[in-house]
Amino acid sequence: MAETAAKKQPAAPKEATGPTGPKEPGRRERKKAATRKALSDAALELFLERGFDKVTVAQIAERADTAVTTLFAHFPGGKEALILGDGSERAASLAAAVRERGAGESVLDALEEFFAGRGIFSEDQDHAYRKQVEFVTSTPKLRAYARQLWVSCEEPLAKVMAEEAGRPEGDLSLRVLARFVLEIPDLASLEPHPRRALETVFEHLRRGWPDV
């Protein structure tokens, strides 16, 4: 799925733990999460009703019964970030997919499995989620933003691949591979069968292009 560069968000605080595991989020965290959800839900409702370009941040804030300053405090990236976030979750999830892959599983297999469960590639989507995914892929600004978010993960993905392969950080071949992998969502979003396109791309990445 294809998703303007959002401003960097501060790193999330480490999760507090207690004797029996993670503590429940406090009242302040729950309030923040509720505000973010209200803003995201309001944005999606308005975008689907009127179209992305015909909705302003002021209208979104009004629909969510909050102030525009509050909207930007939670989503400094603006309208695109309300739907697609800031990219931090992607980088962390990609790294986890590589580091936590099963014994004997290759990095490419782990990354293919990671993408297969997300966005346009997932075969287990409810109607509301599928509608949101289709809206993003059919809206040029959102698709461009989505691509930028994925490509921004190139450095952390290449770094974790180098760690796992015992190769030096900054290895050009791994940077190239990371870039190819991160272009897949945007490229596949143009295909009639994204899941099939995902499988085709990873097949090529595994064997290269010997006849070219």
Helical amount: 55-70%
CATH topology of the largest domain: Tetracycline Repressor, domain 2
Chain oligomer state? single chain
Contiguous uncertain segments of 5+ residues = 1-18
Radius of gyration: 19 Å
Main sheet characteristics: 2 strands, antiparallel
CATH class of the largest domain, named Mainly Alpha
Mean pLDDT, as a whole number?
A: 87
Task: Compute the number of structural domains.
Answer: 2
Beta-strand content estimate: under 5%
Number of helices: 11
Based on DSSP secondary structure assignment, what is the total number of beta strands? 2
Order of helices and strands: EEHHHHHHHHHHH
* Content-based structural category: mainly alpha
Under CATH, the homologous superfamily of the largest domain reads Tetracycline Repressor, domain 2
Strand order of the largest sheet: 1-2
- End-to-end C-alpha gap: 27 Å
Known CATH architecture of the largest domain = Orthogonal Bundle
What gross morphology would you assign? globular
